[in-house]
Amino acid sequence: MKKRPVMLGIGAAVFIVVSVYLSSSPYTLTSVPLTTDVIHSAFAQQAELTLPELFKQTKDSVVEIESTVSNPSSSIIINGMPSEGQTTRLGSGFIYDAQGHIVTNDHVVAGTSTVYVTFADGNTYTAKVIGTDQYNDMAVLKIVDNFTGEKIVPLQLGDSSKIQVGQDVAAIGNPFGLTQTITHGIISSLGRSLSEPTTGGFSIPGVIQTDASINPGNSGGPMLDMYGHVIGMNTAIQSNSGDFAGIGFAIPSNQIARIVPVLIKNGTYQHPWLGIEGRNMDNDLALANNLPSNYKGVMVMKVVQGSPAYKAGIQAATLDQNNIPHGGDIIIGVDGHKIKTIYDIIDYQESNKSVGDKMTLEINRGGNIINITLTLVARPSIPPQA
Asked: Is residue 226 situated within a structural domain?
């Protein structure tokens, strides 16, 4: 156990950014404390807490994380410049269980195996990175020092499938290195899709949008309902300046509940993979393919060679002289569920399927409706960041 000084600085990313500080001096990100196995409803039968009560109940579960990066990434932009040459990140994590497991964003600890974790009382411990999921920007740490006597208070996970737009939420984190900060707002939207520089072009589905202030340093921090349950993990902001512009994003708690136990057990998480790229149908695309206006579905634009979709004979569109796609399979349903966008497919697959599961696609192929069943495999590895 040790004490360490905390230096503050400004780290700002551009557009959809991972709210992360990387620099030659320590900076802070934030992460969420969780419970173990049971998902507790976001609308539990108890009285809502006031903001002071909420902060008092949960603040001891949020920790600071300091990590040292040996190979800084050029893909993360801070103040308009790549993070090359910047070696230290300060962030946060949340207490997941009494065994010393802590959850945070993968981008907080990417590139390192050992980090320092500081509790609200100022005590600091060494922790190891024991599991990462780059695709969903999650990581699990385990304290390796003796933490007997430390106040360990895991947070409870809420059920993110039951949250509603307009619902009050609070975020706790370390914006700009200012530790133990709470902000308040509402859920602005649900079901967003988020792509980060570290996810290899794959999207994180079902992301929560909020207007609760989230700034560089809040990444990994808890988004809480007014009962003190974690309903999301603050991950990114959309901004042209790098500072909060009213739009923040959080990974839903049900994804955390599904993935974290696997990371603790196996160190990695395998995401099911279909192997297509698709374009959402619109009126122009429908007209070009002799379909009614407002026809809903996803036209297959690319099929990855060797993928489940390729082996099942899914057909991609071809482009005419005007670059208008024609003749591709149009996916209109998955396992009996109607779909409208490519994100519906991704969200269903991530929420309901595992590697090795079968999935049935309902397809419009040249005006004929057919069903094709295929077996999902694990996503290919993300290429190393440049």
From this structure: yes
